[in-house]
Amino acid sequence: MAVHQQGVSVTNYSANSSGTWTTGLCDCCSDMGTCCCALWCFPCLQCQTVSQFGWCFCLPLLDCCLTISCSLRRNIRKRYGIHGSCCDDCCTLCFCYLCAWCQMSREIKIRSRATTSPQLISTVVTQQVRM
Fold this sequence. Notes:
single chain; alpha+beta; globular; two-stranded antiparallel ribbon
């Protein structure tokens, strides 16, 4: 009986899923492009952020009573495993509207970069096949 060893490569991708936002609410200076866009053309930032998340880009223009903003923030938290609640989202948007949108935009940018160039972890598994 001959024993033949066969190598198999297994690749795992890991992304940041710590349960927190990757940037703070007031970390606007960490991404000056987003900050400037929010200051000079806030509707453009909103439409771009929603579009990058995969939603229709014109949804923020229909944002009556923060419904779209709260829904987007909740869905960002859900997609990326960020802890929080709807009440937290509503309060954040009510009191720090511009900063909250900047944070959401930064989060989508950072997380999308992490999925396009994730940390690559390779493992070689050796399997014995008896013939």
